[in-house]
Amino acid sequence: LEAPFAAADAVGAAIDLPFDEGLKKEREGFLKLVASDQSKAQRYAFFAEREAAKISGVPEGTKPRAIERVAIIGAGTMGGGIAMSFANAGIPVTLIETGEEQLKRGLGVMQKNYEATAARGGIAPDAPAKRMGLINGVVGLEHVKDADLVIEAVFETMAVKKEVFGKLDQYAKPGAVLASNTSYLNINEIAKETKRPQDVLGMHFFSPANVMKLCEIVRAEKTAPDALVTAVSIARKIAKVPAVVGVCDGFVGNRMLAQRGKQAEKLLFEGALPQQVDAVVTKFGMPMGPFAMGDLAGLDIGWRSRKDRGIKSEIADALCEAGRFGQKTGKGYYKYEAGSRAPLPDPEVERLIDETLTRLGRKRRVVSDDEILERMMYPMINEGARILEEGIAARPSDIDVIWLYGYGWPIYRGGPMFYADQVGLKQIADRLSYYAKETNDPSLQPAPLLARLAAEGKTFASLAASSKAA
Fold first, then answer.
1. Domain harbouring 313, CATH code
2. Residues identified as active-site
3. Domain range for residue 214?
4. CA distance 139 to 133
5. Dmax over Cα atoms in the chain, in whole Å?
6. For 3-47, what is each residue's pLDDT tens digit?
7. What angle do CA 274, 278, 283 make, to 5 degrees?
8. What's the pLDDT score for residue 465?
């Protein structure tokens, strides 16, 4: 960010220069900043966040349902974080688990989190007790009976979620909004398990849920307008930034992220190393690169999922077979010293990559930082264009809000679709066509919407302008 440094310069001028000269220097700094891309990006982000709260296709005057009590099913990492978000806003929560042991563990983690925040001075010394007092931990699904909003935060498999929703019909009161905190799964399928699909939607919180600001609100086929408005309204009440999306695998954020993950993996097969890819992504302004992020999440999760689906990923699988699951085992794509989360490049990983490429008959080549940046960002933008075409997101700015508040996209770059407009859609379409040919990957061919806008010399922003005019 340029502005804090300009502010420091202005303070310096106030000390070092005569008053009028100091004012002149401050004014020069302001005029330079206000005309900069960073200023444009941040002003855009401000309005994009407000625009995202407007729900398309909902009758004007639709009122939210009253939410006085919330039930959350699952006291794990996500369920606990969601419960804390409601308690922070003063909304009473019933936290439901299947057994006393899991419940006790979940409540203990929340207590520790609150105490650590109070110790740092983030909340008042008496706040942990007050907030924990709003959370009522219980065992058994029947305790959802008083809740106006039920949020399911159980294990991310369709079978488990369907089982929960099938049982909710017996216990949840009529008119309660039933939400699933799923990152990928089809909400339409989940809604079929109930006799009230009009009350079912997705509320995809991001981890850690008590910290991250984004909430993807997933509108299913039969979601009632007032249920949707309720979810958006309550998300804002608990200080989240809501963005309404449609049903597809991974919704908006994770669907785009999957394209980046695919390219990150391919780059290793072509000669790049994890630390080079991550350095390019963090230099761009992201808080973490794809490989450090994989280590943080745990590489065994993806490994298990691939095995379930019969998919191989030679390098990632080799790491897991060597017991390298990421930070939790002290080694993954990187090595980690005891008690440290700092990723350190590991010659062992380079050797393992070399051995895998030799076995597959591949040769390493020098991959430039420019190529890495383009292959990390442009396929995501391309997927964003497909998402807009399919109507999964209503506006390009909604996609940007999701990336700004859910994935740490640097605010001074405005979001992936804003960034695409700054680079120029023709440049992005041309480079995607080039990489599709060079890497023999047809999925990199420009999406029809991107190709059309590029050919017409238009921007993603022009879509929002034309829909407002209409």
1. 1.10.1040.50
2. 204
3. 70-245
4. 17
5. 76
6. 999 999 999 999 999 999 999 999 999 999 999 999 999 999 999
7. 150
8. 66
